[in-house]
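Model it.
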Amino acid sequence: MSLEAHGHVELGSFRLQVDLQVDADEVVAVLGPNGAGKSTLLRVVAGLVPLAAGRVVLDGALLEDAAGGVFVPPERRPIGVVFQDYLLFPHLTALENVAFGLRCHGRSRREARERAREWLQRVGLGNRGTLRPAELSGGQAQRVALARALAIEPRVLLLDEPLSAVDATARVELRRDLRRHLSSFSGIRLLVTHDPLEAMALADRLVIVEHGHVVQSGAPAEVTREPRSSYVANLVGVNLFRGVATGTQVELEEGGALTVPNAEAGPVFAIIHPHAVALHRRPPEGTPRNVWRGQIAGLDIEDGRVRVRITGIIPIVAEVTPAAVEELQLDRGGDVWVSVKATEIAAYPA
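Modeled.
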C-alpha cells in the first residue's frame, strides 16, 4: 500500500509544491514553521484543497488528476482525519460522535453504535460515551476524534497537530497512547506537527516543509545528523553554515571561513554543535585552527546549561556551564574570543 501526491496548489499568493510519497510500513511526520504549508499538504491528500496541477494516487488508483479532470470528493476517499481542533459535534455525545462517521459510511444505527462503543473501549473511554465534548478533557476529546477516524476502517490516517490542544502534563501519556494506536494501524499514516519531540517519538521518517517546498526528507537520525536548512538546525540545536569547500577550507556564504578535517570540493554545509564551541576573554593560547572575535548578544538557560548567542563575522551559539558563565562573566556581555577545533566540524555536500 502506498500514497503518492505530486503537483502544486495555489492559494492566493501562496504556492505549495506538493511532493510526497508514503508507504504503509512507515509513519511519516511533516514538520515546518508556521505558514510553510504543512496543513495544506494534509488537506490536499484528504481532498479538502484541490490541486492546481498534479495527481494524488492511492494504491495505483487515482484520487485526483488535475489534467484529466479526476477528483474523488473527500467523503468518498478511504481516509480518516483527526483535525487540530478535533471538530467534534458539540451537541452529540462521545458515542454519537464516533457513530456519526460510521453512519455516513452506510452502517445502520445499531451497528454504528455497537462499533462506536468498541472503539471508545479501545481508546480507554468506554465509560465516557454519554459525555458531550464540553464535558471531556483535551486528551479525552483527542481520543474520541481518533476513535471516530479509525472506526470507519480507513486506508489512510491523517493527523493534523494531534496533540496541540492537550496540556503539557497529559501530552507524554497521550503521545505514548498515540504511538501504540499508530503501530496497530495497518494503513498509510501521515501526521503534521510543529513539535520536533513529537515527530521524533512518533515517526519513522520526517518531511520538512519550508516556504511551500519540501526541503528535506529522511529518517530522524539522518535529518538530525545532516540538517539542510536553518530551521532544521534550530530544531536539532546545532549551528549550521553554508559555503564552498576547497580542501580543508570552507569559505562561508555570509563571510568568514572555517577549517575542517576534510570536505568534498564544492558547495557544502558545515555543522558545529554548541558544546564544541569554546569561549575566551582573551585570544586563546596554542594553535587552534578556528578562532575569531565576537560579541555576546544574549544568554538562554536550558536544562541546566547556558546557550550563549555570539554575533560577529561568524555568528554562532555556544553551550557552556553556569560555572563558565560566572568565571568568564559572560552575563556582562562584551567581546569574546571563539575557538572551535577543526575535528569538531562536520561538512557534507549541500
